[in-house]
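Observation: inputs received (chain + 4AD).
Thought: call the complex predictor directly.
Action: predict_structure
Action Input:
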Amino acid sequence: MGPLQIKEILQTAPENQSVVVKGWVRTKRESKNAIFVALNDGSTIHNIQAVAEPGQFAAELLLTVTTGSCLKVTGELVESQGSGQAVEVKIADIEVYGTADPEQYPLQPKKHSLEFLREIAHLRPRTNTFSAILRIRHALAFAVHQYFNDKGFFYLHTPVITASDAEGAGEMFRVTTLDLNNLPRTEEGAINYKEDFFGREANLTVSGQLEGELGAMALSKIYTFGPTFRAENSNTTRHLAEFWMIEPEMAFFELEDNMDLAEDFVKSVISYALTNCKDDLNFLQNRLTEEEKNKPQNERSLPLLEKLSFVVDNPFERLTYTEAIEILLKSKPQKEGKFQFPVGWGIDLSSEHERYLVEKHFKKPVILTNYPREIKSFYMKLDEDGKTVRAMDVLFPGIGEIIGGSQREENYEKLLGRVKEIGIDPENLWWYLDTRKFGTAPHSGFGLGFERLVQFVTGMGNIRDVIPFPRYPKSAEF
Ligand code: 4AD
Ligand code: MG
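Observation:
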């Protein structure tokens, strides 16, 4: 089925057998005695070297073999004379599938900035950095499915188009087929959504959780893994307008079980990457070390692989929001007035506070629980004190919040009260409320931002660089 991939060829014992290599030229180098072409097909970070003799091919043909061109090379697989690779191909024949005019092709064999590469997102998967990230992203996605499958969860496909706002945050993208230049109006002059495609207002989902809960109330353990959309105008290195979220939801799980699962789950998928993405992680680790070369020793971060192993090998710190606030109030930056935002019970922690807890105080991942009800979503289970809810956020070094979740309010009256309190019309959520009327059960779940996980594992500073085609304010080009 198809040609051998370069990854496979590089692992083949050289016995002067004939091989066919198909891939894109990374570099071409000519010396007095030979012409070297480095080919890559994305199956691995490593190139295969193909060698021709000077004069073996017409000059016109060789002129079209340039960085970015695509070739089919046939030749003998031989032991490599040079260092750096075990095998190479002695070229017998070259077919140029596609040329790449060096005057126009933007990816030259030199270091390009990540900002520049974002402008050519259609070509950046051909760089070492991005192909490594994309392979790791794939491996992590695979590990997610494998983890839940092994643990008896069912993959539930929740809708992308919804009529509800799961988080009550109101930052949604509208879905409509109405003619924006000629909107149908009601008698009162409002837009008449009855004439819209779904006969009501519809949006892109911000979370699959509410439908996920419906699944958990039948299948016990489900997870979703799909795109989610948030129209928040945040231009940060940790926010996308379109991102992928993994949301497990479990019947009969209390907050403690939820934390245990979240911790085991992230450790397990990171560990999968450590075992299965060694070459790519090594490449990214070297890239980061190179980047930090000019920083003073004490400001450099742990080498990537050490950082990942540390997270896998050590228990996360668990504490309540109230305890976290006490730590922050006694902290040095607080006493020296270094925090930009004020600290006090009831505040929504900002990223500087989260980072202090994770990076300075505990120096490891932290799970914060029992947040004030006012700053969390309506569906979270109320604690006995009536002030806090059974929420949990997992905070990671360099990332901040990577997971948000909670035990859910399973009591019908209490949930209805919360729905009304925050101003959602219960009519819109009748189906969600029904689960609390018919066979309600204690249950819990959480959401992991997939790109934030990929960011952590690859060590990339900007979330826009860990998804193939990022969506953010004023950007939807590719
Ligand atoms: O904390 P959030 O908003 O929680 C929920 O959506 C719940 N319904 C999850 C659940 O309990 N089933 O989002 C969950 C995670 C965050 O911790 C973060 O990692 C990620 O999703 N996230 C984003 N990632 C990239 N860009 C954004 N704009 C994100 N917003 C949230
Ligand atoms: Mg959150």
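Thought: report the result.
Final Answer: The chain has a mean pLDDT of 95. The two ends are 31 Å apart (CA to CA).
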